[in-house]
Amino acid sequence: MSESQSITRYPHxxxxxxxxxxxxxxxxxxxxATNELIAEAAQGTPEDLDIAVHAAxxxxxxxxxxxxxxxxxxxxxYAIANTVMANAxxxxxxxxSASGGTISRVMGMDIPALADMFMxxxxxxxxxxxxxxxxxxPLPEPTHTQVWREPVGVCALxxxxxxxxxxxxxxxxxxxxxxxxxxxxxxxxTPTSTLRLVELLCELLPKGVLNVVNGRGEVIGDxxxxxxxxxxxxxxxxxxxxxxxxxxxxxxxxRVSVELGGKGPGIVLPDADLELVAYGALYxxxxxGGQACESGTRLxxxxxxxxxxxxxxxxxxxxxxxxxxxxPATGMGPMSSAAHGEKVLEYVNSAVEEGATVLCGGxxxxxxxxxxxxxxxPTVLTEVHNGMKVARxxxxxxxxxxxxxxxxxxxxxxxxxxxxxxxAGIWTADVVGAQQLARQLQAGSIWINDWHMIRMxxxxxGFKQSGYGREGGMESLHHYVEVKSVSTAxxxxxxKKPLHRLVHKLLA
Length: 508
Ligand code: NDP
What we know:
The termini are far apart. The chain has 2 domains: about 10-260 and about 465-485, 3-Layer(aba) Sandwich (Aldehyde Dehydrogenase, Chain A, domain 1); about 265-450, Aldehyde Dehydrogenase, Chain A, domain 2 (3-Layer(aba) Sandwich), CATH 3.40.309. By secondary structure, the chain is of the alpha/beta class. It has a 7-stranded mixed sheet with strand order 15-18-19-14-13-20-21, sandwiched between helices. The chain contains 17 helices and 23 strands. Helix 4 runs antiparallel to helix 6. Bound molecules: NADPH dihydro-nicotinamide-adenine-dinucleotide phosphate. NADPH dihydro-nicotinamide-adenine-dinucleotide phosphate binds near residues 158, 217, 218, 241 and 260.
């Protein structure tokens, strides 16, 4: 059997059915830990997208879907969560083999969060104010106004390669909970878990409600932003492409939300428990090999504890187990590709050229059994200042930049001196003082004495160039509805309508 015959082929899923790409072509999907071909996924065309949008529009126009009572929709969301958990092993294996995320993280964090997102919204949807009554106004004539929140329509959801299932949850759950229909485009690098999950969920959902079109970002993603019959774009990815998405979608004034990059600062105050900081800050930057938007990549450390803390960071970094992401013992897997790994090490070299010191790591690591993968050693850079390229740009790798400060004011200024504003943290024994500092930090999520404290019932999203819009919890539902005011006048005698006199000559 040839290699291409032995691997799974994933067509699009449109209108509840598998559909071959119009191009007849498939994009290879590789395992980043080994560089082996593991699957092939449809190479979509704008015509494929058209077919999917048409199916989504038809499903939206069928009022049974968008007018479904909240209690019924809630049951459906619970059923989706159950399907996720019933297929957890298979989904996790697909996620690990294409993205290089470790099996322990995917099974311990991503899959439960995916199910949880649907369960959270199964509850929230019953409380969501689909209809609000404003106070009745008796004067100048009796009227009543309601505020209705209705689904936006056909939503195009574009996700990044790093954590596809989590991103699926954050976008698809609120879109469906509010009665929209969906066409999702996963990254062409890691599409398999999304394609399989949509196939599973199509057994629960009416035809056309959830569709997936795979393909290149600059073809399918771009066509989504231009498509006249798509009402909303929700995008997760780089700030560079996010700006492009916003620009292109502005031509038809589509609703847009964008979740972009980050450069998370963690401020370590002199009273912090340094053992806790060392473990926590490294968890903050090494989870998923640093390939996470909310990673804590800048550690701002008070002068008085700097040397003691960096000694602990170096000692702990060398204990991180690099390995095959499919092994439960592995703490950190590969970079997404060799090209990306090279880019990470170029950042390290640039830091050295600008005067930083490599405290530990800073090189490619060899992992037996995964010779085809590109692994980067857990890396801590000291003597970094905030003007260096490594402190300003998103590296998306396992590289922690340690920056010294002397006063809290200085720490806040450094933390906020960035184009990004996704996550920030404070390490201290004084949690009351931390609340006051949290007020001054410009970021969508502030974590005190830990990192990655993402809850599916809490809003998550960015300030500044980390994007706008929020995902997670009740807040996310507001980004998938249009707001309509519906006012009723009770007075039917034209002579008793005082405002009509502004135009008409009416007798009293
Ligand atoms: P990219 O911006 O390269 O891609 C994101 C998605 O956009 C992919 O599906 C991609 O498709 C698609 N795309 C590419 N070009 C276009 C285009 N012209 N129009 C529309 N869509 C397009 O990001 P990465 O996939 O490299 O992901 C890493 C980035 O995502 C990091 O910056 C990270 O911080 C950010 N991120 C943010 C999160 C958040 O919640 N704030 C969460 C996770 C990641 P394809 O891959 O097929 O080219």
